[in-house]
User: What shape does this take?
Amino acid sequence: MKRFSIATRVLSVAALTIMGAGLAGCGGGASGGTADSATTAKGPIKIWYSNNEFEVKWGKAMVESWNSAHPDQKIDAQQIPAGKSSEEVIGAAITAGNAPCLVFNTAPVAVPQFQKQGGLVPLDSFPDGAQYIKDRTGDLADQYKSGDGKMYQLPWKSNPVVLFYNKDLFTKAGLDAAHPKLGTQAEFLDTARTLVKSGAAANAVWPSPASDFFQSWFDFYPFYAANSGGAPLVKDGKATFDSDQGKQVATMFQTLYKENLASKEVYQGDSFAEGKAAMSLAGPWAIAAYKNKVNWGAVPVPAAQAQTEGSTFSDAKNVAMYSACENQGTAWEVMKFATSKEQDGKLLAETGQMPMRKDLPATYADYFAKNPLYKQFAEQAGRTVEVPNVSNSVEVWQTFRTAYAKSVIFGNESVDAAFKGSAEKINQLAAQK
Amino acid sequence: MSLRSAEGVPAAGDTGGRAGDRRTAPRKRKNFLGRQPLGLLFSAPYVIYVLGVLAFPLGYAVYMSFHDFFFTAPKVKVDRPFVGLENYITVLTDPAVQRSFANIGIFLLINVPLTVGLSLVLANALNRVTKLKTFFRVSYYVPYVTASVAVVGVWLFLFQQNGLVNSVLGPLAPNPSWLVNSWLAMPTVALFVTWKQLGFFILLYLAALQNIPEELYESASVDGGNKWVQFWNITVPGVRSASVLVTLLATITGANLFTEPYLLTGGGGPDGASTSPVFLMYQMGILQGNPDLAAALGVVLVIGVLLIALIQKRLVGGKED
Assistant: This one.
């Protein structure tokens, strides 16, 4: 009786523990899957798009336009269901077999994982797939090719990251807001010192110090892209950042943190929009966000040496087709329709984000003439670096972020040791299948 | 158990043989379903829930932890070879995992005693309050029912470099500040969680306090026992079962810490000083597509929490077993 009693209690505690630990093993089960014939099948499809208000507006108009012309192949559209991130939701949908046909917000970093899950349709399987992408995006599209040589994503739109600055705070600090000295990393550091020492701003810049794998896209990576002539984090299966250019950028950020020019704390909100930081790294989406809030200017991300045509991080989101889709023929037609010159023009006008098309400034010359603030981003869009399309891409970025935080932000290890160690681990991760 | 006892003792005067068999056959059927067969029907929903939502996922997690496993689309066929203890070795030799267990140890050492002590004292005080009783009870309960996301902003305001706490402390403020200080980040998270969950544990103690007869306090008072003597000799032993429950629940919820370091210290910062095992499970299993490693870590965590809970049960539960 005593033994039974203890066993019961053990089981009760185990049940509570399990409940808390949330070890929810999600097995498969729902129907779905892919068949070769599906690439020609026509009929109704489901799509997801971003919950960004501007993209929702564009998405609704695009769907309405398609549906009115194709009553037998209607699109059922919705915003990506809520989750900690879109990628988690999409990953779960792939496993459950209920992913939509198309997601107009697929992060390139998640593509290798979705591909490994068997969740994506290679767009090369459509007769005109590869050619359409090449014709629309040009050589930039090569960055999105997977390790097996296939294309699992259609490069859609980018948000080239540039350096925004607050003109009012610059003026308050006695700096020339019309011609800020931000042409090189040394000038950037000097300007940061002036901003903080003058008391004009509590922080010169406040990139998030959080440990999320993607945070490096908005501090280290744009500067590294500019400093390295457009090198991705991993090239030909090898980490590239354990180099003079990479360490130069890391040392610059280390100085920012050491001299308290950037905060090590997490800020709940937009530090730039709220005047807590004088500079910020962001893409063209920020123009609408900062309108009537900040008197801003923007310059290309500086490199060690002054340059006229530097690279930056693309912050792109793409369109991917998911293998649970039954009417893939229609899905491909919708992909082409939604990324046509006309729809790209509408996307640009509605969201301010840059369609990934060849010669963007000339294609929409009228728009950029009327909206000169966006022209700089259109020109920058042709010189962007994407996250590398390698195995374990999220783990690769997490490894880098952990090493970066340890050495650069919190100073618990030398940059040399941290970069060397993380580069070795990343090489191993990228080599795995 | 009921089946065996029903079969074991023959009825008085039973001579055995066919007649006896005929008599016992209907009883066997009846006892197979228990004395109250309808009870099975009533308990079925919960049993199904436990099996489907708790037991199956745990079993599946154990399976995953011993295989090279990743999630795939339903009709994708992949090899998921048995890898023995490889996932466990990978996880347990990972410095980040080791640190997360040390972090959670620090968290539990601060959070559990503080939770038990504060909630007991405050429940005792609330039990004696005569005016504004509801107001006080609701006040303590509000943080518990408020989403962490909402109250984290307040704590950031309090504990950031230029926050209220540092302003009050002036030159005594720690440098680096609380949330970016390797030594203070986890204790600050522990304080936050203690404060946030206090309302729930106070309620448990309040319920337990209602079971202590008032006569005991009157007798102690007549014998000259002051408030402290009454608290120590009547209240504390009187709520021992609640103390066991509070200790176990605080340990289990504490060991599953996720949201607070995720929000308060930027995902386990600074430099992993407030990372928890569940946070790493989230990173490995959901973000990085390594559910096999996450499952191995989860199983280790479950076993660890079970062991701690059993020890606590022995220590706090005393002879009440």
